[in-house]
Amino acid sequence: RTAEGRSRAKARGQHMGRPLKLTPQQQKEARRRRAEGATLKELAKSYNVGPATISRLQPLKSSEWHPLHADRYVRGDTGAPICWLIYAAA
């Protein structure tokens, strides 16, 4: 009975599980700021969440990268995306 109700809810597109702490817009902004060098602690404080919430955000997608700063996010020799945590530490 429960599984049936869950499958109907998913079919309607309802979110399952715990509510998100950050809106999609806040997540996008936090990823952008993180890529620009903001620390987890700074971001967490500005959004009133824990650092783990920020660290779970995925890096920017290639479609979200700003063309003026594209060289910051890719390796020069291969053009492959680099990890934002490694970039931020460099």
Question: Can you walk me through this structure?
Answer:
The protein has 90 residues and is mostly helical. It has helices spanning 2-11, 24-35, 40-47, 51-55, 70-73, 84-89. It is elongated.
Name some characteristics of this structure.
90 residues, mainly alpha, 6 helices, 50% helix, 0% strand
The number of strands is 0
What is Rg? 17 Å
How confident is the prediction overall: mean pLDDT?
Answer: 76
Global morphology: elongated
Measured distance between first and last alpha carbons: 53 Å
Order of helices and strands: HHHHHH
Helical segment count: 6
Structural class: mainly alpha
Question: Sheet with the most strands?
Answer: none
Structure in a nutshell:
With 90 residues, the chain is mainly α. The protein is built from six helices and no strands. It is 50% helix and 0% strand.
Blueprint of the fold:
Elements: H1 2-11, H2 24-35, H3 40-47, H4 51-55, H5 70-73, H6 84-89
